[in-house]
Design a protein that fits this description.
With 168 residues, this protein is mainly β. It has 2 domains: 83 residues, Elongation Factor Tu (Ef-tu), domain 3, CATH 2.40.30; 64 residues, PRC-barrel domain (SH3 type barrels). Helix content is 6%, strand content 42%. The protein contains 2 helices and 13 strands; from the N terminus they run ββββββαβαββββββ. The strands form 2 sheets. It has a 7-stranded antiparallel β-sheet with strand order 4-3-7-1-2-6-5. A 6-stranded mixed β-sheet has the order 11-10-9-8-13-12. It is elongated and about 55 Å long. It starts with a strand and ends in a 7-residue tail after the last strand. The relative contact order is 0.15.
Length: 168
């Protein structure tokens, strides 16, 4: 992923037989995915205009420019769609794009390096930071709450965490 693009969705496969796709939107308002103009494949090789046609189970049905058949739509399964960062809305002070959190180092309140943010997960009860432990392949899930993560400093590339008792 490049710094000038943000992942806003992914294609889950074909929907129907006329070239529609089942689209998973990662936007706060799922339909907003169509408002960012051209979306790019992760490698930048392809671009698409998105027109949402209707909500469907676990996503949206959508038409992508240049995709007219079920076979073309099926071939896109798993493709992540990226929007130009300049088209993304500015966020309030305490909100962050997931892409901005990935790669940040995480230190505890005493300054000890805990690890690096690998991903941001949401299992339904709120966001969790998946942190690859320092010097290990093991990961932990840290609740992304004000209590557990009092400081996020994107500019300096770090997060200060106060993990719940027993997490580490």
């Amino acid at each position: 992923m490049t710094d000038d693009r943000v992942c806003v969705g992914a294609i889950a496969g074909a929907f129907g037989v006329k070239g529609e796709v089942r689209l998973k939107s990662f936007c706060a308002h799922p339909e907003d995915i169509a408002s960012y103009g051209e979306l790019h494949s992760e490698d930048g090789a392809r671009t698409f205009l998105v027109r949402v046609t209707r909500p469907v189970t676990n996503g949206l049905a959508a038409r992508l420019s240049g995709i007219a058949t079920k076979e073309q739509a099926d071939a896109l399964r798993g493709l992540r769609l990226m929007a130009d960062r300049g088209r993304m809305p500015d966020l309030p002070e305490d909100e962050f794009y997931h892409a901005d959190l990935i790669g940040l180092e995480v230190r505890d309140t005493g300054g000890t390096l805990l690890g690096i943010v690998q991903s941001v997960q949401d299992y339904g009860a709120g966001d969790m930071l998946e942190i690859r432990r320092s010097g290990s392949a093991a990961t932990i899930l840290l609740p992304f709450t004000r209590a557990a993560v009092p400081t996020v400093d994107i500019a300096s590339g770090r997060i200060v965490a106060d993990p719940p008792e027993g997490l580490l």
